[in-house]
Design a protein that fits this description.
Blueprint (H helix, E strand, L loop, with lengths): L7 H17 L6 H9 L1 H7 L2 H19 L2 H20 L4 H29 L5 H29 L1 H22 L7 H7 L3 H12 L2 H17 L5 H9 L3 E6 L2 E5 L2 H25 L5 H19 L5 H29 L5 H8 L1 H9 L2 H5 L5 H30 L12 H7 L1
Antiparallel strand pairs: 1-2
Helix pairs in contact: 1-7, 1-8, 2-3, 4-5, 4-6, 4-16, 4-17, 5-6, 5-8, 6-16, 7-8, 7-13, 7-15, 11-17, 11-19, 12-13, 13-15, 14-15, 14-19
């Protein structure tokens, strides 16, 4: 799908979200260090458990808003709240105020993204969605790569000024959404008429989670999320504690050596660079793959990539492991959002997108347990458990897709009906 054919909504959001993500990642990776200095490690560990839990509720609420009221109001509410939280950050007089603003940012982001993902599905053809989602993922990761590099200087040296700039960037993005972005909710008038009480709206989520196929999708996604999140959790601990100082490059008498935490930085940089450079290429290369094949293979590759790290401390072999892991990430990411957009009934797309984020929120909550496990298990044992989770996820995906044909041709209580065998083949 060429850029020139994109809807204006998508073009504006792609540019705006890329700029916003760059500034967001200039401070976000350093908040744990900041809170550790302010509150101590023990209290910080407890405090950082709450944002993912609140994010779960906010994601579900954001999905409800996007289906009942519209994509645009949900996105505007999330963006405006982010803007206010950045202002609170910039004017903060206490670390506790910073923590409150940090929670507010997490909630605002969780409300924004279900509507954002649903809007992409509203405005693209089914066959183009993987590539469009991949483009947005690439743009986001440009910020992930550039932001921490810039933030390592500005956050510690000029934090109030940095957060003030983040406020103005967020304000500009919010105003752009307000004046440029148009509503994309299908049958908006009908959706408004369906809006019932709060109790009735939340009961609709119970229907979603009774959908066995989608429940398996969420469960598998949680296990995969735990696997992927080891990138900046146990993998960092392993590299710091077990990888010795060694030559990365040598030329005659000159050599450049890395080890421990430096190795972690190089590994993260390699991952980020691959995501930016190769997401679209891998998406196009795997365009003919079914969702079943993509999700299963990506789960296995990510698990194997991490497990292989436990078998070596050689820097170049560790880079090879990271390449394997990242290829799994690149195959998976566009497919997950594309699958939900295809599977969800059109009038519940935002709710399904919101429910889909649970796999990441719950995964982020569980993932740090691997660090505790490292107190009792050797690295090969911890990475072995991570590999087992990835393989179980692959089996759950296999089971999910065996159930999918019956669901796609039969009403499951979510008003989903299909009349084409070709439609099943595209997903399966």
């Amino acid at each position: 799908m060429f850029w020139s054919t994109w809807d204006l909504n998508l073009k504006v959001r792609l540019i705006g979200e890329t700029i916003f993500h760059t500034f967001y990642w200039m401070f976000f990776p350093f908040m744990a260090l900041y809170f550790s200095d302010a509150f101590g490690k023990d209290l910080t560990g407890i405090l950082l458990m709450f944002p993912p839990l609140l994010g779960i509720i906010a994601s579900l609420y954001g999905g409800q808003i996007s289906d009942r009221v519209g994509r645009r109001p949900a996105m505007l509410f999330g963006a405006a709240t982010e803007c206010l939280m950045f202002a609170l950050f910039a004017l903060s007089w206490s670390p506790w105020v910073d923590y409150a603003a940090f929670i507010g940012l997490n909630i605002a982001s969780s409300i924004y993204w279900p509507a954002s993902s649903a809007m992409v599905a509203d405005l693209t053809k089914e066959e183009d969605r993987r590539e469009v989602y991949a483009t947005f993922y690439t743009a986001m990761n440009i910020g992930v790569v550039l932001g921490p590099v810039l933030g390592s200087f500005f956050f510690f040296q000029h934090r109030p000024q940095l957060l003030l700039v983040c406020f103005f960037v967020s304000l500009a993005f919010t105003l752009t959404l307000f004046f440029v972005i148009k509503e994309s909710l299908p049958n908006k008038g009908h959706a408004k008429q369906k809006a019932g009480s709060l109790k009735e709206q939340w009961q609709s989520y119970a229907v979603i989670f009774r959908d066995k196929v989608f429940a398996l999708y969420i469960l598998a996604g949680i296990l995969v999320a735990v696997t992927f999140m080891q990138l900046d959790l146990y993998m960092g601990v392993y590299l710091k504690e077990h990888v010795p100082l060694q030559n990365l490059i040598s030329w005659g008498d000159w050599s450049f050596s890395v080890g421990g935490t430096e190795t972690f930085g190089w590994m993260m940089s390699l991952n980020g660079l691959m995501v930016v450079l190769f997401t679209l290429a891998v998406t196009r290369l795997c365009a003919a793959w079914s969702d079943r094949r993509s999700l299963i293979i990506s789960s296995v590759l990510s698990g194997l990539g991490l497990f292989a790290m436990s078998l070596t401390v050689n820097i170049w072999l560790l880079f090879a492991c990271m390449v394997l892991f990242t290829v799994g990430e690149l195959i998976r990411t566009p497919v997950t959002q594309s699958f939900v957009s295809k599977y969800a009934p059109e009038d519940q797309r935002g709710q399904y997108m919101g429910a889909s984020t649970l796999q990441f929120s719950i995964g982020r909550f569980i993932a740090p347990l691997t660090i505790a496990l490292s107190e009792w298990f050797a690295p090969i044992g911890v990475f072995g458990i991570i590999l087992l989770l990835a393989l179980v996820a692959a089996m759950l995906y296999h089971r999910m897709f065996t159930l999918l044909p019956a669901v796609m041709v039969k009403d499951t209580g979510t008003t989903r009906q299909q009349d084409s065998g070709q439609r099943q083949e595209e997903i399966i």
